[in-house]
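Quiz preparation item.
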């Protein structure tokens, strides 16, 4: 008697259910499409126009803030790299692609990793910027991370050999972590996270006591970086009322931004917007939000690449000025990857960011949500919302030594692999990457080649400012 076994079809909306053997074969087959060594390749096209791409982003941004963006990008080749996600996306689209897709961060440079408070009040390390998140080729995130390490290493004066070891450390950590995740049950992968304090303990023997003490001091400081500290730093009391300190163009209260509108009508609109945002939260977190009252709203300039997009800080309070909550509402425009990876399935770009963040992060901010704002200029804009400060901690890149950046590169590589293993086919990815160092070496090659290109692009923006094609301010 012949027995036929049928594979149960996947339900609509779920992932494709292949056997482990099929998934392994899929990963190995991808090497024929993009051999591991091919990831070293990058040849700039003759029609490249990185400055033109950067200037094209001004069309949807706040005009008076664009010189601030350009000024911040011109501080160094590394700050330029931070703001140049769009030109790099265009470049990555010309490089070999394995066809193995994941949820991309889209801007996975080393400054977009950091520590923050988990809901359980632990300091965890993770990717922390998702403005450009979108599904796409896994290697794009790895290449952006590795190239950022090469660029930052050059800024710090590291020799070529040290820079290569740092890039190799990131790529190797990514590859070996992915191979480890491929052997773990999916739920174990989903629950995996990186606590900062235990991770630091593992590297005690590799770091000099003075450097270790400095790192521990920074971590201790992170535990105080919250809404209470922000309240003391960013607000003052005027006529018995707590007010956000105006510091144009970096921080401008909403009443000053829209001086021609009645404040009462403006805040009535903001209350409606806040209510819509609250409905995107879990019910318990929505209940928590409802205990707070809006005090004031201000526009804030944030980051490097994000400058010019609309970002607002919202001062909330639960008890007569002594229980503050600072929220940040940040405009979400279409991802710079959209032209090269396809449009998002989400019509609200804020929801795109939030969905990508939930998919990639081990633990996300409890107030992470999204909304759409009918702006006074008649344009509806999408925003995502999160806490402004909650034990936020970023490593001072410019103070790193090679040994410290190598350790940091490994943390970033592991973290990126964990994020990709949650959204992509970790078994196929592990089979594709393999057990040798071929992928690592190719990524390290790419990192240095792209760092060369980044320096040329940085000089091109300097030239555009000098020629009057772009405007930059030294206001940082």
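Solution:
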């Amino acid at each position: 008697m012949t027995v036929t076994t049928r594979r149960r079809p996947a339900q609509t909306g779920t992932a494709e259910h292949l056997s482990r053997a099929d998934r392994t074969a899929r990963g190995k087959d991808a090497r024929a499409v993009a051999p591991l060594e091919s990831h070293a390749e990058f040849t700039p096209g003759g029609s490249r126009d990185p400055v033109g791409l950067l200037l094209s982003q001004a069309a949807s941004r706040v005009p008076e803030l664009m010189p601030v963006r350009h000024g911040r990008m011109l501080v160094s080749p590394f700050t330029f790299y931070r703001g140049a996600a769009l030109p790099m996306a265009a470049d990555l689209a010309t490089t070999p692609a394995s066809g193995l897709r994941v949820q991309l961060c889209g801007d996975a440079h080393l400054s977009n990793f950091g520590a923050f408070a988990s809901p359980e009040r632990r300091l965890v390390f993770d990717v922390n910027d998702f403005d450009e998140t979108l599904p796409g080729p896994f290697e794009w995130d790895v290449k952006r991370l590795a190239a950022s390490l090469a660029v930052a290493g050059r800024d710090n004066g590291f020799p070529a050999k040290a820079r290569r070891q740092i890039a190799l450390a990131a790529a190797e950590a990514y590859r070996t972590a992915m191979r480890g995740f491929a052997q773990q049950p999916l739920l174990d992968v989903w629950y995996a996270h990186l606590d900062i304090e235990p991770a630091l303990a593992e590297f005690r023997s590799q770091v000099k006591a003075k450097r270790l003490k400095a790192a521990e001091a920074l971590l201790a400081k992170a535990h105080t970086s919250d809404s209470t500290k922000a309240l003391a730093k960013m607000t003052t009391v005027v006529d018995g009322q707590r007010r956000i300190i105006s510091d144009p163009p970096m921080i401008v209260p909403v009443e000053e931004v829209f001086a021609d509108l009645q404040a009462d009508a403006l805040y009535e609109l903001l209350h409606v917007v806040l209510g819509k945002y609250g409905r995107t939260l879990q019910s318990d977190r929505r209940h928590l939000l409802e205990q707070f009252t809006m005090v004031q709203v201000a526009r804030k300039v944030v980051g490097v690449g994000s400058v010019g997009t609309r970002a607002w800080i919202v001062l909330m309070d639960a008890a007569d000025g002594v229980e503050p909550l600072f929220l940040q509402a940040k405009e979400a425009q279409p991802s710079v990857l959209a032209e090269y990876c396809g449009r998002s399935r989400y019509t609200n770009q804020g929801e795109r960011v939030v969905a990508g963040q939930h998919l990639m992060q081990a633990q996300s901010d409890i107030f992470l949500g999204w909304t759409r704002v009918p702006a006074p200029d008649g344009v509806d804009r999408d925003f995502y919302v999160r806490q402004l400060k909650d034990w936020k901690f970023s490593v001072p890149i410019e103070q790193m030594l090679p040994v410290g950046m190598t350790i940091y590169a490994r943390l970033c590589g592991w973290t990126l692999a964990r994020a990709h293993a949650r959204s992509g086919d970790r078994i196929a990815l592990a089979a594709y990457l393999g057990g040798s160092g071929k992928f690592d070496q190719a990524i390290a090659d790419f990192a240095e080649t792209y760092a060369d290109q980044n320096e040329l692009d940085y000089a091109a923006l300097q030239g555009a400012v000098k020629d009057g094609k772009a405007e930059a301010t030294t206001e940082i």
